[in-house]
Amino acid sequence: MVLSRKPLKGMRELTPGEKRIEDYIIKRLREAGVVYGFEEYETPVLEPLELFLAKSGSELAVEQSYNFTDKGGRKLIMRPELTPSLARMVAASGELIYPVKWMSFPVCYRYERPQRGRAREFMQFNLDILGVSGLEAELEVFLVLRRIMNSLNASPGRYVIRYSSRRLASEILESCGMTEEEMAQAFAVIDKKDKLEPDEWEELVRNRIKIERSADTVINFASCSDPNAPWLVEAAGGSEACDEIVRFSGMLRDAGISEAQFEASVVRGLDYYTGIVFEVMDTGGKNRRAICGGGRYDNLVGMFGGQKVTGVGFGLGLLTLELFLETYGLIPDSISGKHPADIFLAIYSDEERTFAVNLAENLRNVGVSVEIDITGKNLSKQFRVADRKSIGYIAIIGPEEVASGKITLKNMLSGTETECEVSEVLRMLRDRSLSGEAN
Ligand code: HAM
């Protein structure tokens, strides 16, 4: 039997070149979290199904998940997201110092139809603040998002942080007499607004929401792009939720976060959001999936019993972010093409092997990444390997090098050669890479 060469549909398989790009993005994300004082944590991939049934809603926990019964008869789920696990961990940790500022890089699983920006196995970056009920937490999270995008060279006009308020939306829908169930349906319809043409969407609203006044309310509300829009002020002016969103947009303005834009149609799909919700989108329309989604969830931790702890945070998809960066040429060529080795030691003959192996070890001891020939092939084949792997420098170890203790570094890109003492190699490589001469 010939086995398939493909992994399961939608599963995450990365070549070293692809992994280097992912690592470059992870590094930037982690650095952004660290400069705001976030600490890293981990939770299990396998979780009890009931945790996600209770917290994420049945669409995600049942229809869009990998769930199964294990050999002990337990109903389990491969985590489709991280937030319920985080809430449990916070509820269980007695001695936390608030505000808790935590971040994590979970691999998540969702049984969705794989398409551009949607996989069945994907990595998220999660960043959450727990224990802050004021909008300062949302502001800090928006600042982190802006820093992330800046650090990846995404200019402000290329993306937008769209935000709205679940609380405001609920208030408006409640005011036209909708039940909880009708409101959940209205949220689902509002969520479709940006995926459909305007007239298609309006038709959908009128099909799903039979009471004309309610359908009108949904259409009017979801069309607001200003927290001070006359319709909104008329409908909800003076309410706590309306005041909150007006205040938040003022805070964003004062902090100079011009990338943020109020869009009432942002509701995000998860049931646990209770306040401000937000997403990061590509403004160029080339990537229709949110790069990041998040919001405030004030009741999630309290559902485990014990103390109520408020929360705000987001999940950012590494796949959606990478597609965005790729679309606008923001992934430096040097990342995908760069081999980890700084230098390749080619060996003239077996006579010099011991010398070369010891030299390689000494260089590695001082932090130089060295690949050495281990094939015993002739020099031209060794050169070809170093060239195809795009290793920046090569040095031949032959009888002369063994006798003199000096080696000649050849820059594989420019062809220039420099003779130096072995003890000088680290400094030479460092100087070259600082002057931009290396790959
Ligand atoms: P979410 O909106 O379900 O939120 O997902 C957040 C992000 O994860 C999305 O915007 C997208 O970038 C990425 N993502 C989701 N599903 C897929 C998929 N199938 N393939 C690739 N990327 C995907 C949550 O997960 C919340 N737990 C986020 C959160 C944290 N809220 C508060 N704290």
Q: Can you tag this structure with a few keywords?
A:
single chain, 439 residues, alpha+beta, BirA Bifunctional Protein, domain 2, Rossmann fold, 2 domains, 9-stranded mixed β-sheet, 5-stranded mixed β-sheet, 41% helix, binds histidyl-adenosine monophosphate
Topology:
Elements: H1 16-35, E1 39-40, E2 46-48, H2 49-55, H3 58-63, E3 67-69, E4 75-78, H4 83-92, E5 100-104, E6 107-109, E7 121-130, H5 136-151, E8 159-165, H6 166-175, H7 180-191, H8 198-208, H9 212-222, H10 230-236, H11 240-254, E9 260-262, E10 276-282, E11 292-296, E12 311-317, H12 318-327, H13 333-337, E13 343-347, H14 353-365, E14 370-372, H15 379-388, E15 393-397, H16 399-404, E16 406-411, E17 417-421, H17 425-434
Parallel strand pairs: 1-5, 8-9, 13-14, 13-15
Antiparallel strand pairs: 2-4, 3-4, 5-7, 6-7, 7-12, 8-10, 10-11, 11-12, 15-16, 16-17
What does this structure look like?
- By secondary structure, this protein is an alpha+beta fold.
- It has two domains: 16-327, Bira Bifunctional Protein, Domain 2 (BirA Bifunctional Protein, domain 2, 2-Layer Sandwich); 340-434, 3-Layer(aba) Sandwich (Rossmann fold), CATH 3.40.50.800.
- The protein is built from 17 helices and 17 strands.
- Strands 1, 5, 6, 7, 8, 9, 10, 11 and 12 form a nine-stranded mixed beta sheet that branches.
- A hairpin with a 5-residue loop joins strand 3 (67-69) and strand 4 (75-78).
- Helix 1 runs antiparallel to helix 5, helix 7 packs antiparallel against helix 8 (198-208) and helix 8 (198-208) runs antiparallel to helix 9 (212-222).
- It is elongated.
- The mean pLDDT is 92.
- Bound molecules: histidyl-adenosine monophosphate (HAM).
- The site of histidyl-adenosine monophosphate has 26 residues, from strand 7, strand 11, strand 12 and helix 12.
